[in-house]
Amino acid sequence: MSHVVVVGATRGIGRELAGAYLRDGANVVVTGREAARAEAVAAELTAEAAKAGEAPTGEATGLALDLSRPETVAAALAPVGQVDRLALVGMVRDRNTLAGFDVATASELAVTKVVGYTAVVAALAERLAPEAAVLLFGGGAKDYPYPGSTTLTSVNAAVTGMVRTLSVELAPVRVNAIHPGPIRDTPFWEGNEQLAGALAKFRSESLTGELGVMADVVDACRFLLDNRLANGIDLPLDGGHV
């Protein structure tokens, strides 16, 4: 039985990824900023799997973890045992132009991903199984900046550097990153009329003419986490954005 930790799994892609592993029979730790929310989602995922007629042999557990407070990460992860798969999905969003640069929001984003992600990996390093895999979430802004994306573009580019160094430090544990474009059925994009124009523009610039859905991202995550030769990869997932 595998043991999976999904950091940032109370909604969106993280929740879907946790559910996929639970349905496969893994023990899954679901983390979120609030303990009550994480525990509720863990219970919901278990109930959903049962309702679908699936009988997972593992169990889902909720755990409070705040990536924006990396000094608390090690203590928060103390209850976690051996880890076979670790997915770092949690993030904050920041649209921050130079004209009105908000240092606080920029700092929270940088700390959450660069310091918070690394703090999680450092805390769990000795509990990662020899054949374990780690997945970091970046984003399409790494390669396709736009006005207001300076912090987001820089931080997602830093994820590439983290893959390079962590894959060396953790070997033979595998480390990869995924960089999705806009995913239309996530809570952030779905039904947001203010972003409809951005979605249409991205769709028109895609070679496939399609926007991804969460199931596409989960499928790609599973490849990076489960394929034993996938290592040191920065995978764009954007339909061939041009």
What would your notes on this structure say?
The protein is an alpha/beta fold. The chain has 7 helices and 7 strands; from the N terminus they run βαβαβαβαβαβααβ. Strands 3-2-1-4-5-6-7 form a 7-stranded parallel β-sheet, with helices on both faces. Helix 4 links the parallel strand 4 and strand 5. The protein is globular, with a radius of gyration of 17 Å. The mean pLDDT is 90.
Short description:
This protein has helices at 12-23, 35-51, 73-76, 103-124, 150-170, 196-204, 214-226; strands at 3-7, 27-32, 60-64, 83-88, 128-137, 174-180, 234-237.
Average of pLDDT: 90
Q: Order of strands in the sheet with the most strands?
A: 3-2-1-4-5-6-7
End-to-end CA span: 42 Å
User: Uncertain runs with pLDDT below 50, 5 residues or more?
Assistant: none
Topology overview:
Elements: E1 3-7, H1 12-23, E2 27-32, H2 35-51, E3 60-64, H3 73-76, E4 83-88, H4 103-124, E5 128-137, H5 150-170, E6 174-180, H6 196-204, H7 214-226, E7 234-237
List keywords for this structure.
single chain; 242 residues; 7-stranded parallel beta sheet; globular
